[in-house]
Each structure stands twice: as C-alpha cells, then as structure tokens.
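DM from R.C. (forwarded with permission)

"hey, sorry to bug you on a friday — could you get me a structure for this? deadline for the figure draft is monday and I only need the backbone to look sensible"
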Amino acid sequence: MPKAIIVIIVSSLITQKFQIDDSCFLNYVLTGWDYTNSPYGNNDKTNNNRNSNYSWAIPSTRNEANIGKYFVQKNWVVDGADLQTYTNLSEGDIIFMDADSVNNGEFMGISHTAIITGKDKDGDYEALECTNGLSSGVFRYVKVKNLASKNILFVARFMIS
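My reply, with the result:
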C-alpha cells in the first residue's frame, strides 16, 4: 500500500470527532476509505465494501482477528521481524496482539492492533494505536517496544501484487 495513501487515510480518520475502535480503524485503512467516506463520516454510506478506486484495497473483514487471519492466509507475516530488538520493521506494518490474554475465541486470540508509523525522535519505532479511555481521544502514538506488554503475536506487511 503506498505510504502517501496511508498517511491521507490515517490523518482523515484520527482528526475527526467520532471515536472508532481499532478494528474499524484498521478495516477502513485497508479497504481504502477515509473518514468522510466511512459510515462514521457519511450517514448515507451503508456498506463497508472495499474502495474500488484503489487496486490494493482488500475486502472488508471487520474485526482485527479476521484481518490477522487474512494476512496469515496471504502469507504477509513479516518472518524477519525481531520483536526483541525491534528490527526489520517498516512504516505501515501492522502489529497484531492478544492484549487481554483472554481466550476470546478469535483467530490466535487477536484482540488489538497498531500500525507502525516510522521512527520517533529517539530512533525508536513508533505505532499509532487506537484505544478507548484516553483523555485526548482514542488515538495515540506509542513506542513499539512498549507494546510488548500487550503480547505481540506477529507483525504483518501489506503486500501489493
């Protein structure tokens, strides 16, 4: 997925007034919808079909566990991602986590996701996380190494054929 497109879609989704959860956020990024064209920003939109304007947009899968399963089935898991030293990561990579360590009956217990946005001023990888209960809204930037407590299962990279 082109990085410029991710930036446009993500910027649109995080600057709007309605709060969405991480599965909706990730679904809209991967299906190619910005906020104003999502059901949150457009009351007339009644479906979550992929945006046909983008050849890379995937079909809507709604929850993060199904998105994780889709990435595993497509073999888009970053096998070389070192989750001890946080190397071989890239902007746009998606981190799949079992944040609550509860058997939720979903694929691999996936219950949370974050999108790597690049490196911060300290040179550490940073991710955009969508979570409830923040005084600043639902989005925050967090160091990837600080997500380790949320039981990172794997990192996936969106591949364009």
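R.C.: lifesaver. The radius of gyration is 15 Å.
me: no worries. The chain has a mean pLDDT of 80.
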